[in-house]
Specification:
The protein has 121 residues and is of the alpha+beta class. The chain has one domain. It contains three helices and seven strands, in the order αβββββββαα. The longest helix is centred in the C-terminal third of the chain and has 17 residues. It is globular.
């Protein structure tokens, strides 16, 4: 499995992105792989984005599978900048994430504009 395939799988099942700075964990709603003049980045947002300010860019120069393919780690300049793990492996309360993810999936099923929002916002 590739890193991109694993990320798609994690998002579908409840992937949590852990940022090293600031130290924060959020349940992923979606992510796109991009490049620009500054480098390669992951364009992402957490579940229930309220406005375009909730779209984030994670610049990295290396993304690898870790823990026997369970996790994705992102590095920039040799330093770990973020990881994506199954929600059960995060520090977030598993029941809360599970419930929020179910509500999020229901909301997306009724609002077909999320993919456009993630790509264009």
């Amino acid at each position: 499995m590739t890193v991109k395939e694993r990320l798609t799988e994690l998002i579908a099942k409840g992937g949590v992105i852990s940022l090293m700075s600031p130290d924060i964990e959020l349940t992923l709603a979606g992510a796109l792989w991009r490049e620009d003049e500054e480098g390669t980045y992951l364009r992402w947002c957490a579940i229930f984005p309220e406005h375009q300010g909730h779209i984030h860019h994670l610049y990295y120069d290396k993304a690898v599978l870790d823990n026997d393919g369970r996790d994705i780690l992102f590095y920039r300049g040799g330093e770990l900048v973020a990881g994506v793990v199954p929600y059960i492996e995060s520090n977030l309360p598993a029941d809360d994430v599970h419930e929020a993810l179910a509500r999020w999936k229901d909301a997306v099923a009724q609002d077909m504009y999320f993919d456009e929002f993630l790509a264009e916002a």
